[in-house]
Automatic annotation (TrEMBL):
<protein>
    <submittedName>
        <fullName>Glycosyl transferase family 2</fullName>
    </submittedName>
</protein>
<dbReference type="Pfam" id="PF00535">
    <property type="entry name" value="Glycos_transf_2"/>
</dbReference>
<dbReference type="InterPro" id="IPR011990">
    <property type="entry name" value="TPR-like_helical_dom_sf"/>
</dbReference>
<feature type="domain" description="Glycosyltransferase 2-like">
    <location>
        <begin position="5"/>
        <end position="111"/>
    </location>
</feature>
<dbReference type="InterPro" id="IPR001173">
    <property type="entry name" value="Glyco_trans_2-like"/>
</dbReference>
<dbReference type="GO" id="GO:0016740">
    <property type="term" value="F:transferase activity"/>
</dbReference>
<keyword id="KW-0808">Transferase</keyword>
<dbReference type="InterPro" id="IPR029044">
    <property type="entry name" value="Nucleotide-diphossugar_trans"/>
</dbReference>
Amino acid sequence: MITISLCLIVKNEENTLGRCLESVKNAMDEITIVDTGSTDKTKEIAARYTEKIYDFTWIDDFGAARNFAFSHATQDYIMWLDADDVLLENDLQKLLLLKQDLDSTVDSVTMNYNLASDANGNIVSSLRRNRLVKRARQFQWIGAVHEYLAVNGKIIDSDVTVTHKKERCDTADRNLKIYEKRIADGEVFSPRDLFYYANELVDHHIYEKAVEYYQKFLDTKLGWVEDNISACGKLSDCFAFLRDEQQKLKYIYQSFEYDTPRPDFCCRLGYHFLNSQKYSLAIFWYKLALDLKDSSNHSSLKNYACSTWLPHLQLCVCYSKLGENETALEHNKNAESYVPNHPSVLYNKEYFEKLFNS
């Protein structure tokens, strides 16, 4: 059976750290906490679970902090989490089984990462991350912001899921400030940095500048295909906010140059044609969103709404506009099976009950 070191970097995580460590402690042989300047009870809480608590002077570099944490691990494998992550009980049991059975020739194990769920418990978005890596390989974190763990060798996908439970937003502008400082210092951004800086700009509603950096990113022609597709989606959204329909459509269609259409882009086109009252065209794209097989890389962000309830809800509207109310009702029922308490689903349900019972 392998042994595992858990590594976390933290700052002012008194509200979440105990929950995180409590959820995984039974699978860990060692817990290493690196604190980057907490002023609350974070280190006091960490001390309940481990003596391995280290200070790291913050230098606006997440990759450096994570590498420092990894350097203090001593067990066979290293697992990393953030303080607002948890393992649910069934995933803890899966991890314990994985720990018992893992072939020691494996270099890295990916785990699913559930980022958000809706009020009905449906997973809204998720992706896969390399979570458990062989210490002897000395894999390194790359990047000051939106860092990634560069791994190679024998990599397997596990059925363990890490669940993200974000609690606070007081660091909302932290990443943007780091990027802007790097620009002010004259740093030349990599394609990855251009992409993630543009994402930060979108999150702060700085759309025109975001457009500039997404276009710079795509112009490099060096981006990961999933980031290229994502950039097209973000550009389409930016131009929607800027009320430029021609450019909005341009980048939806440009996404098709990188791979087969994705459900979220089909829904974008469906929405465009729905608003243009071209209901048959809207129906085509929403149906395609439901029919498509997911061709995205397993490490890319998944938006499940666009391949489940959202197309059904919009198809209900389209068919209702065309006077095909029985078909519209069926699509509303399909949407209801995913999001039974969605306001639009409930409104439609009441509307059709009155329509068919009058």
